[in-house]
Amino acid sequence: MLITLEGIDGSGKSTLYEGLKNRLADLNPLFTREPGSPYLGDAVRRAIAADSDPMVEAALFVADHAVHLADVVRPALTKGRLVISDRYSDSRFAYQEVSLAGAHPDPHGWLEAVHAGWSIRPDLTILLVLPIPVAMSRLAGRSEQEHFERQEFLEHVQKNYLARAVHDPGRFVLVDADRDAETILDFVEKSIRAAVQ
Ligand SMILES: Nc1ncnc2c1ncn2[C@@H]1O[C@H](COP(=O)(O)OP(=O)(O)O)[C@@H](O)[C@H]1O
Ligand SMILES: Cc1cn([C@H]2C[C@H](O)[C@@H](COP(=O)(O)OP(=O)(O)O)O2)c(=O)[nH]c1=O
């Protein structure tokens, strides 16, 4: 089973991901993330840090996904393992539909085409939803701000996430991320345990 964690920057995804490692240890999940695939992850992070051309960035995110699927996700699923990924394809649809606007005539169509026929659909997607001002104040504490972390940008990204959830309600679990980390962890742990039963 493939479970993905999604949400805007500052939504508390990394905090949740780390918390789930303890909570779900008995299920022996494979914890993994995008971007960050073997041998390509570093290149993608360098491209983000360098504020690269949006199409270059998008192509690298897709390439990172391909390596992640081939070398990490698919082999683990084939062995019957539970896989939990911090970010996955929905990040592309949410972020690159915004970043590619103006750089490509049909970002959504391109993203659909580039994933169709080979990417694996998650069984469950946990979406952390947070008011943008709260996310911005959480991000303000970070030493380095990435170019994705601007307020209007994140507003669009969260709208895209919510639109995807509306179109695929059976896959998404929406989480009010404006609560304390322990309450969020309790809720998400219960949702995942219910899904794997
Ligand atoms: N539920 C929460 N309530 C308040 N602050 C939180 C919560 N979850 C995370 N944070 C804090 O917000 C910041 C961003 O959290 P992080 O987990 O890194 O978010 P993301 O990975 O989604 O960007 C960190 O300083 C973290 O300690
Ligand atoms: C996987 C992925 C991430 N991103 C963005 C989201 C983040 O702003 C940035 C780096 O991801 P990440 O390091 O996971 O950030 P965070 O800790 O906030 O989750 O890359 C995309 O734009 N497209 C993608 O396909």
Low-confidence stretches: none
The percent range for helix content is 40-55%
Hetero groups bound?
Answer: adenosine-5'-diphosphate, thymidine-5'-diphosphate
End-to-end separation: 11 Å
Order of helices and strands: EHEHHEHHEHHEH
Give the C-alpha Rg: 16 Å
User: What is the topology, as strand order, of the major beta sheet?
Assistant: 2-3-1-4-5
Binned strand content: 5-15%
Using the alpha-carbon principal axes, give the shape.
globular
Structural class: alpha/beta
Average predicted confidence as pLDDT? 95
Could you explain how this protein is built, in words?
Residues 5-184 form the Thymidylate kinase-like domain. Keywords: ATP-binding, Kinase, Nucleotide biosynthesis, Nucleotide-binding, Transferase. It comes from Methanocorpusculum petauri. Its EC number is 2.7.4.9. It catalyses: dTMP + ATP = dTDP + ADP. This protein is of the alpha/beta class. The chain is 54% helix and 13% strand. The chain has eight helices and five strands. It has helices at 13-23, 41-49, 54-78, 89-99, 107-115, 132-139, 151-167, 181-196, and strands at 2-7, 30-33, 83-86, 124-129, 172-176. It has a five-stranded parallel sheet with strand order 2-3-1-4-5, with helices on both faces. The longest helix is centred in the middle third of the chain and has 25 residues, at 54-78. Adenosine-5'-diphosphate (ADP) binds next to helix 1 and helix 8.
